[in-house]
Amino acid sequence: MTQPVGAFTFVLHSHLPYARQAGMWPHGEEWVHEAIAETYVPLLNSLYDLRDESVNFRLTVSVTPILAEQLADPLIIQHFLTYAEERSAWAAADITRFDEAREPEMKALAIHFHHWYSRVLTTFRDRFNGDILGALRILQDEGLIEVSTSAATHGYLPLLARDSSVFGQIQTGVASYERHFGRRPKAIWLPECAYRPAYFDRVNGVDVRRPGIESFLEAENLSVFFTETHTVEGGQPVGKAAGEAMGMYGVVARRYAIQPLPASAEQMEPGSTYETYWVGDAPGTVAVLGRNNRTGQQVWSGSFGYPGDPCYREFHRKDGVSGMQYWSVGGAGVDLGSKPPYDPARAQQRIKDHARHFAGLVEELLVAHHAATGNFGIIASNYDTELFGHWWFEGVDWLREVLRLLAGSELVSLNTASGFIEEHPPETVIALPESSWGSGGNHFTWLNVDTEWMWPSIHAAEYRMEQLVERFPDAMGQTRALLDQAARELLLLQSSDWPFLVTTGQAKEYASQRFSDHVDRFNALAAIAERGDGLTTQEAGMLDALRERDNPFPDIDYRVFAARQGSAALAG
Question: Which of the residues 29, 94, 163, 192 is marked catalytic?
Answer without folding.
Answer: 192
